[in-house]
Known about the structure:
The chain has helices spanning 24-31, 35-42, 50-62, 88-103, 123-130, 144-152, 177-191, 206-221, 238-250, 263-275, 309-326; strands spanning 14-16, 65-67, 77-82, 107-112, 134-137, 157-160, 172-175, 196-200, 231-233, 257-260, 285-290, 303-306, 348-350, 353-355. By secondary structure, the protein is an alpha/beta fold. The strands form three sheets. A six-stranded parallel sheet has the order 4-3-5-6-7-13, with helices on one face. The protein has a six-stranded mixed sheet with strand order 9-8-10-11-12-14, with helices on both faces. Strands 1-2 form a two-stranded antiparallel ribbon. Helix 4 (88-103) crosses helix 11. The protein is elongated.
Amino acid sequence: MGEGRSGSGREGSGEGRGAGRVTLAHVAAQAGVSLSTVSKVLNGRPDVSAPTRVKVEELLDAHGYRRSSPTPPEAPLIEIVFHELDSTWSMQLIKGVQSVAKETGLSVVLTESGTRHSPGVDWVEGVLRRRPLGVVLVFSTLPDELKKKLWSRAIPFVIIDPAGDPAPDVPSVGSANWAGGLAATRHLVELGHRRIAVITGPEDMLCSLARLDGFRSALAMAGLEADPALVRFGDFNVRSGHQHAMDLLSGPDRPTAIFAGSDLQSLGVLEAARVLGLRVPADLSVVGYDDIPLAQWSSPALTTVHQPLVQMAEEAARMLLRLRRSGQGEAQGGPGGPGGQGADGAGIEFGTRLVVRDSTAAPAS
């Protein structure tokens, strides 16, 4: 069967010390598993439950089985990965993960890598060396190659507010973006605004499109049509909001209200209005999205859609720990896994709500 004394020292990716004293078949018998399961453990295959993997590895160590590429010990860490770390929005997510880590005696490591779609290809090698208990990713998805590498080391992962449509084997935590866009626009319509512009995020992000769909739905419910000239795609930052607002507000037929896809974009809109001599909300109403702490301190205080960023990050961290305890981390979408990681609840969505402050009012007659 290939597990005899003469061959056991080469099974998997290592060699046994004292191969004459123990065979992999003996380890399999002691663990109560098949020889193929032991081989899977040795080769880092994902389709082995966490308790079984631990039992087999303990027996291998107890019998002095030495592997050429030993798996490093787990670090008491939760890793959170962004494509950029320069926004207040990011700090809210870090705060949420840190809160759960503190409760459970863990630490948090921050990584900046890749683009908004995926971390860089070099990131995964670093995380395999660090071997955290789990990874929170603030990206749209994770390429199959990176997912398989994490599965092979039993490192679970969760995506926060995915920009794309997450695969069934990838658990995610997001918010009700369509409902948020609907509430923001309905508020402006109810105030009497009819010429309403929207500045959303990148066109290839699901959250941007969902907020835009909510905007269009609110207009349609009111019997209004969305003017294509008043729909802008940008980035969720101050500069993008400022640039688009300057263009929208400089024309002769400017909008009386702007719904921005983030509070940072809204701050750019407020600055554009100031530069152009427009008063908010007397000449222009502005609604943001996120409800970051800075929103209530802007001038005027910003009406915005509250997205529970801290709670979303807390839930993502707790999901990692549940996956860890349940042994689903390594079978997360892997072959033979019991439903994949998503069995813990892929696609948790938090509700949003409108917070009315001072940046919106009825349009001037």
